[in-house]
Design a protein that fits this description.
single chain; 171 residues; alpha+beta; three-stranded antiparallel sheet; two-stranded parallel ribbon; 5 helices; binds flavin-adenine dinucleotide
Length: 171
């Protein structure tokens, strides 16, 4: 939602959300969808991206999509998108953004030392102090919790600052 609305505000003639289910199954706040559409964002339901198509200069010029229909509900309770055989089309575009989630920054793995990472590549840190398993390093925010919120990241920063101060003062 943020990516598509930002694209629109930056002047995109058409800013389109290509989504494999319908608006009813979208895992977003209804208000968010309403505001996006009010801003001029278009929703293209029941399509799943297959590939980015390169133009003559090598830049993306279209997204090839598989058309879908709704089947039975899956474990999330939402109706499962099922591909319609042979129904493939191309949406012309200048920019394609995959806005489908986040991963740990691989930089964390390169810091080294005794700092432990969990199986998803996020840094293991003490919940109260932010200190990592390498006593010289503190961490906080998304790189510890995974994708979360600004408030949690700011809180982690404050806790870590207090803990670093104590450590430097030898307390
Ligand atoms: C699209 C989107 C919408 C969101 N909307 C909300 C919202 O409405 N409300 C909310 O509370 N949260 C929202 N979040 C989550 C929020 O943005 C994050 O939880 C928060 O920014 C985490 O803060 P952070 O300081 O841990 O990490 P970040 O804000 O990601 O900061 C990490 C910083 O490290 C820098 N960096 C990375 N690698 C290196 C390197 N090798 N060397 C030096 N610097 C480096 C990055 O450039 C970045 O500035 C949203 C996130 C996204 C992606």
């Amino acid at each position: 939602m943020d990516a598509v609305r930002t694209a629109k505000r930056l002047g995109a003639e058409h800013a389109i959300i290509a989504y494999r289910r319908t608006e009813d199954e979208m895992p977003c706040r209804r208000a968010e969808l309403h505001h996006a559409k009010a801003e001029g964002v278009e929703v293209l339901p029941l399509v799943s991206p297959l590939e980015f198509v390169a133009g003559e200069d090598g830049s993306v010029c279209a997204v090839k999509v598989q058309k879908m229909e709704l089947g039975e509900p899956d474990e999330s309770g939402r109706r499962r998108p099922v591909p319609i055989e042979g129904a493939i089309e191309e949406i012309p575009c200048d920019v394609a953004i995959s806005a489908i989630g986040t991963n740990a920054n691989p930089f964390a793995a390169k810091i080294g030392g005794k700092m432990e990472l969990n199986k998803w590549g996020y840094i293991v840190a003490d919940e109260e102090t932010g200190q990592t398993t390498d006593p010289r390093i503190w961490a906080g925010g998304d790189i510890v919790t995974g994708a979360a919120t600004v408030i949690l990241a700011m809180g982690a920063g404050k806790k870590a600052a207090a803990s670093i101060t104590k450590s430097l003062l030898g307390e």
